[in-house]
Amino acid sequence: MAANPMTQFEVYRIGPEIKVGAFDISFTNASLFMVISSLAILIIFNLGSKKNSILPNKIQLLAELSYSFVSKMISDTAGSKAKPYFSFIFSLFMFVLFCNMFGMIPYTFTVTSHIIVTFILAAFIFIGVTVIGFIKHGFGYLKLFVPSGVPIVLLPLIVVIEIISYLSRPISLSVRLFANMMAGHTMMKVFGGFVVSLGIVGGWLPLSFSVALTGLEILVAFLQAYVFAILTCIYLNDALNLHH
Amino acid sequence: MFKKLFLYSLIANFFFAKKIFAAKSGGMPQLDPEFWISQIFWLVLTFGVLYIVLSKLILPKISANLELRKSQIQENIEAAEKQRESSEAKLKEFDGIILKSKIEAKNIFKDSREKVIKNINSKKEILDNQIDDEIKKAEVEIDTLRQSAPEKINKIAVVTSAEILKKLIGAEVNNSSISAIVDDLVKKNGDKYYGH
Known about the structure:
- The complex is a heterodimer of chains A (244) and B (196).
- Chain A is mostly helical and 244 residues long.
- Chain A has one domain (7-240).
- Chain A is built from seven helices and two strands.
- Chain B has three helices and no strands.
- Helices cover 90% and strands 0% of the residues of chain B.
- The chains are: A mainly alpha (244), B mainly alpha (196).
- Chains A and B meet through β2, α1, α2, α3 and α4 of A and α1 and α2 of B.
């Protein structure tokens, strides 16, 4: 009777079909959880920034700690030049974190377990970083592919490798988040299925596994959001401070 | 019995698991492009709204709050530092005043002591001089008394011997003869009597 562990990733329409030209932009369960995550972020941070007391209350403390956490992360990895991009990285981190965390609630939908969502985010970051790099350094940005101190003989090979690694950034960034979220949720579903099929006699073992996995997945949910944001910072750092 | 049941269910489970994984290989919903456009649209919409509201409204407020708190704390620390410094200076001043007044008190004590000692000494000197004078006067008096004593005693001796003789003999004896005898005795044994 255990359901297919992949059904949790199915997208279905909520409400009527909306079409703009040839494109189907219907409101789906994925859209619902994007809206819920964004609203939750906005509500929490709005409450956290409303009053300004010298001794902050809990929600204000939460907002301010998140702010200084992301701010410190950016200044540590990308330096002070990355300050204008703080809002974007903060939104990105919070969006991914909240989507991951909402996905941990049973019967919800995990937005970030879809490759198309993570790929759009990663592609936007990749294009944005590349544009910033060319604006800041002009064609000098291409020096990124030519590391200094490399023998002339090896240079063509190195340049090819660097270009490939640069171009694979959006793929690695998006697949990392998507695969982590999908694998974790699938595994939890499989273990949940074991609990049902083994019944009251043998179900305790997979149940305890499931409990442990839940803790692990919450950790992964935070960690992947952090990794996503910090890799964005690192790419931004490459574009802002050309090291090669 | 439970062990057997557990084993059976475990074996059954593997069959089940095979079925599950077979179903899984049927396809990942993520690769179905049916709702890709919808997801992209809603992602851009929600993330765009989130970014705009956060960056325009909420984050500047949080940043301002943090700045304000930072500056306020800095101000408070500076004020506390200033007050500490001023209180330290006052403490130093206070210590100085105490030290000064201590020295003053010591000086006053010393001065008055010296004055009193001087006073006492001068008075003592005067008193000593007076006492010396008195002693000298007394000594002179004693000396004169002592010098005049033998004469008086001789006279008394002469008078008493004359009286005694008169009573014994019933006749008047010449004073001059008695005094001659006394003088003679004095001359002989005067040292013994008056112990010069």
